[in-house]
Amino acid sequence: MRWKTAALLTLAVLAVGCSSNDKKEPGPAELVKFDAEIELKREWSRSIGKGQGETYNLLKPVVYGNEIFAADVRGLVVAMDRQSGKVNWKKNLDVQVSGAVGAGYGLVLVGTLRGEVLALDVSNGEERWRSQVSSEVLAAPAVNGDVVVVQTQDDRVIALDIDNGEQRWSYESSPAVLTLRGTGAPLLTNELAIAGLSSGKVVALDTRRGLPVWEQRVAIPQGRSELERVVDIDGGLLLSGGVLYVATYQGRAAALDLNSGRILWQRDASTSSGVALGYGSVYVSQADGSVVGIDERSTTVLWSNDALARRELSGPSVFSSYVAVGDKEGYLHLLSQVDGRFVARTRIDSAGLRVRPVVEGDWLYTYGNDGKLVALTIRQRD
After folding, report:
1. Across the chain, how many H-helices and E-strands are there?
2. Is residue 39 within 8 Å of 380, Cβ to Cβ?
3. Which residues contact 126 (CB under 8 A, 6 or more apart)?
4. pLDDT, position 199
5. CA separation, residue 219 to residues 142, 181, 247, 263, 271 (Å)
6. How far apart are CA 4 and CA 16, in angstroms?
7. Residue 326: is its pLDDT beyond 80?
8. Is 314 helix (H, G, I), strand (E, B) or coil?
9. For the segment 208-229, what is each residue's pLDDT rounded down to a tens digit?
10. 363 neighbors 377 (Cβ within 8 angstroms)
């Protein structure tokens, strides 16, 4: 298995930072009390094997049709009815899963620590094919009906034939000297495969041949040490109405034109968990634990909630009129999209919530580090 020659750092290490003295680093901020405005109702809960495992995996579930699919670190893949939680099938792949889960066009897709991509039949979990790639796959594969595209830890973007897993093309870039442990999931349209790289660049490739259509630098490494120069794009990309939204660690949040890569707007930000979009605003869970709402017309910060400092937040998701984020102690927080105030909170998994919540219509699914998958809906308080 090919690895980057540089050190691989987890977000937790970077969040603590380096210190030349023995001062104790402050712990996570104490949770502030508030009057809940809504109630989060638990519709069902399932245990998915060993969950995320002890390494910094982000095994995000995926909704496909009327089912939700989740995987644990040891290779257990479970298909459930997304509204009842009823298990439709289970499959134990006996592999170390590190990138999960992608789904589409009749396939459920996972990536492994050994650099394999496995395609399962969506109806019963039977293996359709598996393919070896250059290094571990740390994010969900993407599929568009013709190819399956993965981004590997060594900053390659690889396209596999949807029918048999044979490699169609591979795009290589020069990885950064020092990087977070992780990659964002590639974004796939019929014509373009788009990936955020450890160098702070976004690249759009022709899905047929893997040739670059455009490349745009979102963040420029700055600082004297390699640690200060880390500008990974790890949180994935968001596409809406021909606009591509992206954010980097120690860099910027930006909006790009999908067809040309031209930067439409940008402002300083630092996150490894990506962005969410709603009500004309972009929401960012920053590395310091603050959550901000950015008006995309003026690029000004509409609000900032700093009460979750050092709580190692998950990526944000827009849920109804709210922004949902998880934290390292397993709490799910709902903030108002209007002003960032807390409106609800519930504890899901005491081992923590690293994975961004999954939203489908009026349902929210959150997957804890120890493997608890919980389906939630909103109930207005009397």
Report:
1. 1, 34
2. yes
3. 91, 120
4. 87
5. 25, 18, 9, 12, 12
6. 23
7. yes
8. coil
9. 999 999 999 998 877 777 777 7
10. yes
Cα separation, 210 vs 171, whole angstroms? 6
Which CATH number characterizes residue 365's domain? 2.130.10.10
3-state secondary structure at position 173: coil
Sequence-ordered list of residues with C-beta below 8 angstroms from that of 297, at least 6 positions apart, any chain? 280
Q: Is 45 within the bounds of a domain?
A: yes
Domain that holds residue 82: 8-12+32-380
pLDDT cut 70: percent of the chain above it: 92
Give the number of domains in the chain.
1
The rounded distance, in Å, linking the Cα atoms of 371 and 73 is 9
Supply the pLDDT for residue 181. 67
Question: Using one digit for the tens of pLDDT, what is the confidence trace for 158-192?
Answer: 999 999 999 999 999 877 665 666 678 899 999 99
Q: Confirm if 101 and 59 have CB atoms less than 8 A apart.
A: yes
Q: Is residue 265 part of a domain?
A: yes
Q: Does any domain span residue 2?
A: no
d(CA 313, CA 330): 10
195 domain residue, yes or no? yes
Among 52-56, 177-181, 255-259, the range of highest mean pLDDT? 255-259
Beta bridge partners of 216: 202
pTM for the full predicted model: 0.91
Say whether pLDDT at 9 is over 80.
no
Residues 6+ apart with CB under 8 A from 42: 346, 374, 375, 376
Token duo for residue 191: 């014509």
CA-CA distance, 366 to 109, in Å (whole number)?
A: 19
Interatomic CA distance for residues 159 and 382, integer angstroms:
52
